[in-house]
Fold:
Amino acid sequence: MYQIDDKFHQQGQFEKPSVSNYKPLRICILGGGFGGLYTALQLGKFAKCPYKYEITLVEQRDHFVFTPLLYEVVTGELHDWEVAPAYKKLLAGSSAKFYQAEIQGVDLEQKLVNLQNGEIVNYDYLVLSVGKETRLDVVPGALEYAQTFRTLADAECLKKRLLFLEASDIPVIRIAIAGAGPNGVEIACKLADRLKKRGEIHLIDRGNEILKTFSQSSRTVSYRALLKRGVQINLNTNIEAINFNKIIINSQDKTRHIETDLVLWTGGNQSIQWIKELNCQHNQQGQLIAKPTLQLTGYPHVFVLGDLAEIRDIKGNESPATAQAAFQQAPRAARNIWAKITGRKLKSFSYLHLGEMLTLGIKNAVVYSFGITLHGNLAGIIRTGVYIQRLPTLKHKLEVAKRWIVRGMKKLLQR
Ligand SMILES: Cc1cc2nc3c(=O)[nH]c(=O)nc-3n(C[C@H](O)[C@H](O)[C@H](O)COP(=O)(O)OP(=O)(O)OC[C@H]3O[C@@H](n4cnc5c(N)ncnc54)[C@H](O)[C@@H]3O)c2cc1C
Structure:
């Protein structure tokens, strides 16, 4: 185990290490999603740092998931390897090491991470970015009969179920989707396009509109896209229970049931239990409270980013819990860790909302940015292009872009 001179990493102080007392600093990144993976990749770029440091990314899965493109796995528009590349491949050539393990908890005072396999990882600097998890225990039967849509395994499971239903002799495939936020709306459109006339899709939400946090123009375009595809939109509707072949809903004090072959649960995230149990400040939702520099309040050597944290800029504006926000936070976290190691001033993070993009069926999308709304096939191309540009590592971007362009050209020639 590496040891570091205590004076060197005392909170808020910086002391240039002498050759004799200097050992590599251990930077441990927990969670390889938008926050963690992109921080690891960015940190690896600070080659000019005169002080050695070791970066370890600890993550339970062997692959990253670019969630905004997960829907395309279900429709076959993209392959698994494009949307969910392996960490080993992404981090090859980077100075960050990948360690696949499930994290059980962190002792912030002792600066150590407990892993499920019994191992302990010591750190000098910690990045916490394990995101949130889907909450299923809110409705009776959801745990047993509803599927989540968050991981590659979820997408694969959904694909298998669809293949099974498509191969069966049932005339209509009935799907209920809980939650009319972006995930619900996007998967509803994709499933409607995949199943065409054979699909009967219900989108259910207790609120009075779809896509609550989105711009009015994105909402209008999305609403039309859902109606055009025959998706039945049930707003102001509570889901009371889920059974193996039906979902019980209540609207305006009337209870009824919808028969289903598949229920997808997209509403409601919650903080991970061991994050809620950390000995530090949390908000009411169990999120960790970050300073504008992305440091965990009370722990200057711990950086927090992504969905698990409440992050406000110096004016008090809160970052949303989105990939877009985590993607922007990662380079700032990396830069601030480097700044702390090298004795530079830390900079505050400020979120810039670049716009909204939603897939609304196969090759169809809405893109809203700085007051301009585009929709249809062109928006679909822009959305895919922008996301390819945001995939991790240049090598992976080029591989996916090449395949996407070749496929597009083939389709054009076939016309
Ligand atoms: C289907 C879907 C589509 C989405 N589309 C968009 C979109 O279009 N635009 C947008 O801005 N946002 C989108 N989001 C939201 C976006 O994915 C999240 O806001 C973003 O991923 C948050 O990043 P994060 O780093 O905080 O967490 P995550 O990306 O969730 O990463 C957390 C990582 O931590 C790992 N982890 C968790 N617990 C442990 C543990 N105990 N041990 C080891 N590893 C652990 C997980 O495996 C995961 O890899 C979408 C989400 C979903 C589910």
Summary: The radius of gyration is 23 Å. The chain has twelve helices and 24 strands. Residues 31-36, 59-61, 67-68, 70, 102-103, 129-131, 149-150, 183, 272, 306-308, 321-324, 326 surround flavin-adenine dinucleotide (CB under 6 Å).
